[in-house]
Amino acid sequence: MNFTMKNLIIRSLFVLLACASTYINVQAAEKTYNLTSPDGKLKVEVFAGQGLSYQVSYDNAIVLSKSNIDIILSKRVSIGMDSRVMRVQRKKIEEMVESPFYRFKEFVAACNELNLKLKNGFGVVFRAYNDGVAYRFYTTRKDEVIIENEVAEFNFPEDYTAYLPYSTNDEKPMAMAYQNIYDVTPLSKAKDKLAFLPVTVDCGKVKLTVLESDLEAYPGMFVQAKGTSLQGTFAPYPTKTDFYPWRVQEYVTETADFIAKTTGARNYPWRVLAVTTDDRQMPVNNLVYALASPNRIGDYSWVKTGKVAWDWWNDWNLKGVPFQAGINMDTYKYYIDFASQNGIEFVVLDEGWYNPKSGDMLTVIPELNLEELIAYGKQKKVDIILWTVFNVLDKQLEAACKKYSEMGIKGFKVDFLDRDDQTAVEMVYRIAEATAKHKLTLDLHGIYKPTGINRTYPNIINFESVFGMEEVKWTEIENNMPLYDVTFPYIRMMAGPVDYTPGAMSNRSKADWKAMYSSPMSMGTRCHQLATYIVHDSPLTMLCDAPTNYKGEEECVEFITSIPVEVDATFIADGKLGEYIVTVRQKDADWYIGGMTNWDERDIVLDFSFLPEGKSYQATVFTDGINANKNAEDYQASSYTVDHTKKLNIHMASGGGFAIRLKAE
Is position 426 annotated as part of the catalytic site? Predict the structure, then answer.
């Protein structure tokens, strides 16, 4: 062998050894960090070094397969490409969370935390609770950070069934009201559409629900099914907007090639995976609230919750009155009188009290004397809430808050945000802070799902983002609201309370229902409607029907107004996602129980063993009447004494329900 050939062989060996060494070093660079829940049943494996990914198991069975996560900076720089861990911190957290106007007065949130600080000025924190897993990125950089994209994969080991609420806007899928029924489908057969959160996936042994918390100065997350995976998608950053003429509602016309820009060290939103082994755990999962930033407004004793006599759903459609009903003084005084007579705390002045085309909420229409209405309401112990559009309020924010708080208005119902890009989210926070400063409450409509901001700003007392009662004014029977009514409490209510706007006195069976705009009717029975006031988390809740439609229905009105909107504790006594639900709430010494079913008739046995021993209760019970399958307004009211030894057989009609009040004797 000549020298040249020998030299070539030696050099080749060095190259091979170098490649092998590099391969070995790269392989060795990936490390696994394990984290378990306090009860040891949930396990998270975090893989760092060759990108960032994680995997979730429950009782040693994989629930979520290895899924990539990443932050992509400008110029397509990936923080995961060099995800060497510089520091590992672990801690146990146990927090007593004070939760005003929530499903619990307070609750304990306990978890184990893993904090991985990366070389590149970023880090990621994972938490494992007994009822779910959460992670969030953070940065310690002080300079400006431009985020082109975020990678959030949710890879499932099998083709599981998902509950997907798709965007209702095919042309601009990220511009809509976050209101839709669920497509229940195998992941592989899902539509090629964006779905908004929360989204639930039935993994057999457990259900996994994707949510997010502490969304601030950052776009919200959508997901899209790809095979057996859900892929996170985020709205790009707006660069130009315009306004629809009818309400001067702002909408996005041009966007940048990135999703977020911020300056300084900060935390990014929590990605939340609620893991439940029993459907009854779902409506009372507290992770979104627990992971949100704590109260920023301090004293919230001035915040007033309650029930509302509402004008819009019934289209100001009064009957038997000596004046022309509409947006005028006579009509609103009539609503105030009705509220006062029935112990209802508020009246909403919905769209029309200012000219929506003007975009000026500082100028009231000539037909209304707002000061006089406020004074009239004060005499009757009824407060007023004003409707407006998000960007209209934002444009006149300080002036509107100052003017109307000084006049005696208690809060705003804010509508038509219809987006969740970074600038839209920032608008929500500006409005929350300014209204809190002026002691005004907020009911947020036309908004993305709750992400815990009601913990951060307790003056936010309700959210829409639900396929609520307004839909019966124009929807189709195929949209099946009784089915939705026993689905969304398990999924959507995980994120936070719902302004569903119940209270219809015109109730129809599946055979007789039809959409009517000015004289709307509910799908399902009267008792189904009564149950909503107990089943729903709703610190501000409507009586949606016309005051004149409640005449002759005083028994139902008295029952509705007796149900508290603030409670001490909540649990689900019975139920199954998409079939039925039985909710129990406690307030002081009293208890309230509401149940509802889909279009299927159903018999249940209600066991009162949850009641304290040695105490008896006077039960007021509303159940579907014997003819409720045909006449959905048929109900039976009865009263008797119960204690913890009693059981009650209850039949729910098609689309039916029941409602019970237990007063301690």
Answer: no
